[in-house]
Every structure is written in C-alpha cells, then in structure tokens.
Amino acid sequence: MSQSTCPVSGENRRKTNYPGEKLEPAVEVVDGVWHVRDMAAAREVLRSRNTTQAGFNVETINMGWLRPPILFSDGEPHRTQRAAIARYFAPKTVARNYHELMEGYAEQLVDEFRASGSVDLSQLSLRYSVVVAAQVVGLTNSDYEKMARRLERFFDTPVAPTQATRPATATLRSRFETLRVSTAGQLPMLSFHLHDVRPAIKARRKQPQSDVISHLIEAGYSELEIMIECITYGAAGMVTTREFIGMATWQMLEHDELRARYLAGDKADRHLVLHEILRLDPIVGHLLRRTTAPIDVVVDGEQVTIPAGSLVDLYIRGTNADPKVVGEAPLDLCPGRELPPRVGAEVMSFGDGAHKCPGNSLAIQEADVLLQRLLRLPIRLATRPTIAWDELIKGYEVRNIRLVLDRDA
Question: Angle 100-268-261 (CA atoms, 0-180°, nearest 5)?
C-alpha cells in the first residue's frame, strides 16, 4: 500500500496501546506461557484441533452439570452448535431479516440526536446494538431500553476473584470481597433472566421463531443454559459492537479525509474503511488457547514446536500489525491494504478457527448502517474520548465520547 493512497498516514494511528504490551518478538516463552505475535503462527494455533479454549476464565469456571456455552465448548459439541447457529448470522440472512430493522432504529436514534443536539455515543450505540442483537438471539419480549440498562449493569460488574487469581492464603477480607463481587454480579443476571430471557423462552415455547433461543429450546437446553447463552451472545453482539462504533466514530471525526472517503464510497468501500479501523484497534486484544498435543508453527522461516499442555497467549494487536502480512507502516490507517490470499481486511480481529466470531458480517453491516447516518451530520467531538481496559480479554472500552451537533454548519 503506497503512502499516497493512504488517507491517514505518517505516524502511529492506533488509539489503543495496552500498558506494557509489546509487538515483538514474534514468539517468546515467559514463565512457561507462549506469547505469539506472529500472524501466521497465531492462525495455525487457532485453526489447530489440538487446542482447547483457555480464555474468558474458562479454565477456572466449573460449569458442573450445565452444558457449557458455545464460547467455552470445544471439539465436536462446539462444531455441532456452530453449524446449527450459522444460518442466523449468514450475510444474506442479516441483509434479509435485520437490515430494515437496523435502518429504522438508526433513523430513530439519529432523529433523537438532531432534536437534542448532544448525545453520549456510548449510550446511543449500546441502545442500538442491544436492539439488533436481541432480534438475532430472540430477546424480543421485553423493553429494549430497560434490557440495555440491565445488561450494562451486569457487564460493568467487576469479575469475581477465582481460585487462580486469589492469594495462596486468602484473608477474611479477600473472602468477603469475593462474596461481595459474586453477589453483585448475580443480581443483574437474575434481573436479566426474569425480565428478558424467561419471557422470550415462554413466547417461543408457544410459537418458535427463526432465532437462537428457539433453536436452543428445540435442542433441549434448560432455562438456565439458555440464559447463559444469552449472556454470551450479549457480550459478543452488544458490548463489542458498541465499542467498535465508538472507535470508528472517533477515528473518522479526527481524520476528515478518512471520513470523506467512507461517506463517498459504496458498500464495499465503506466496509474496507471499517475493517481497517478494526484491524488497527481490535476489540478483543488477546486470545488464549491450551494445547492438547504438540503444535508446529513456522516463524521467520524456522519451525517452532509448542509442547502439549502449553498455555498460548495470542496477541491480536500484534498479529494485526505484523508487517510480513499487512505491509509497510502497519500502524497507519490505510483501507484497502494488499494482503496475502485468504487474509481478511480485518486480519484477526474476529479471531480464526473454530471459535471465530460468527457475527462478523452482522457487526460490520450494523455499524455501517448507523455510521452512515451519524457521520453525514455536522457533528464534532465535545470531549476527548478516553480508553478503559477489560482485563479479562485486554480489550478496550471507549468512554467520554460526547457528540454535539453544529447547527450553524
């Protein structure tokens, strides 16, 4: 990609730099953990059948008799579940079933913004992403606005200390802290279950729909298992899309050429811009896997063997800035980079392999529908956005992103 065709070049345009995180070396072992920043090696690990999910606290959470949610499962059970839900997230299904909904609700939110002249984008994007994801999942029998608030309270609850994170000798104070945090997380979860999940299940037992909850009922999932899956899809489809909309708005309001290119393009051109923003600042910063057998990867022309039983930490910000893959100036914002065959424009922002995000097409279409309408308005940032970090996935949260309408423009 030549610098002349890059609208935002010349320096590091990445907004998110996790404290202390390195982009090199390509592979290193620290305290027995394999840290992988090479894109090809990371993809090999994610596509290998000789690994299990190790992220999202999966190794410290005991599901007991419950069926593990799709995010935690591996092997044949995972492949079966993924195949069953794929139809709900297919690009043609998204365009046919949800595009009109996205457009209508985006128009409503933008009209509200026009009337008020000011908006907290993190709240607007949360309302929008909740409504869209709820349609796909089947959470359509309760008040969307209240559901958004319930989910926000749940996801804002600190993660309860696990046996892995607790001190070797737990003090009385630390045990009470574990109890306090655990209880704080259960209350909004119970509220979400009673007000949103249970009414949806009841309605679909009477009349099944083309959505995830109807599929789970047919597959024999219990009410509690369905609720856990709804939390999983809530995190994946609501929270992450919310953050991406905030990041994309921030980047395009700071770079007029990028915004102009986005608004002037057709659907394919606009999606290239969005994918490049996501490549530069992926929502999920790290993915973890545990090897069940040795895995051979090639790094800089040399074969490296990751032993069985190893914990592998895949640095997505590192893989997405691998110059061997994305070319020169990997931290510039250059939509339409020349990439190797079978490498998507977002590189590894949606993951890869068995656990690759099934909602990638939905997320990009959803963001595009809202951003087109929002960015055509004469708007500006009234505040300097800030970045907070989710320690579980080293992912970011864009906050303090207030937009104002310039009525004199």
Answer: 105
Instruction: Go through 69-88 and write b for each residue having 16 or more CB atoms within 10 A of its CB, e for each that does not.
Output: bbbbbbeeebeebbeebeeb
Query: What is the average per-residue pLDDT within 184-201?
Result: 86
Helix (H) or strand (E) segment spanning residue 324: helix 323-326
Ramachandran area for residue 366 (φ above 0: left; ψ -120 to 50: alpha; else beta): alpha
pLDDT attached to residue 174:
44
Q: What mean pLDDT is predicted for residues 283-297? A: 95
pLDDT of residue 189: 84
Find the mean pLDDT for residues 157-173.
Answer: 46
- 142/72 Cα distance (integer angstroms): 28
Would you state the pLDDT for residue 297?
A: 95
Q: What are the structure tokens assigned to 254, written together?
A: 């700071």
Give the other-Cβ count within 10 Å of 389's Cβ.
14
DSSP string for 10-42: SS-------TT----SSEEEETTEEEE--HHHH
- What are 182's strand-pairing partners? none
Domain of 131, in residue numbers: 3-405
Burial class (CB in 10 A: 0-12, 13-18, 19+), 342: exposed
The pair of three-digit structure tokens given for residue 198, joined into one six-digit string: 């249970």
Domain count, the chain: 1
Instruction: State the pLDDT confidence band at 179, using cuts at 50, 70 and 90.
Output: very low
Parallel/antiparallel/unpaired status of strands 33-36 and 311-315: parallel
pLDDT of 206 strictly over 70: yes
E-strand ranges in 114-250 read: 118-120
CATH no. for residue 84? 1.10.630.10
Report which DSSP code applies to 8. B
Q: What is the mean pLDDT of residues 188-216?
A: 94
Rounded distance between C-alpha atoms, residue 338 and residue 340, angstroms: 7
Distance of alpha carbon 174 from the chain centroid:
31
Q: Averaged over 257-268, what is the pLDDT?
A: 96
Indicate the residue type of 98: Y
H-helix or E-strand spanning residue 302: strand 302-306
CA-CA-CA-CA dihedral for 186, 57, 174, 155, to nearest 10: -40
Q: Is the pTM of this model over 0.85?
A: yes
Q: Which residues of 163-172 are buried (b: 16+ CB within 10 A; e: fewer)?
A: eeebeeeeee
d(CA 252, CA 125): 16
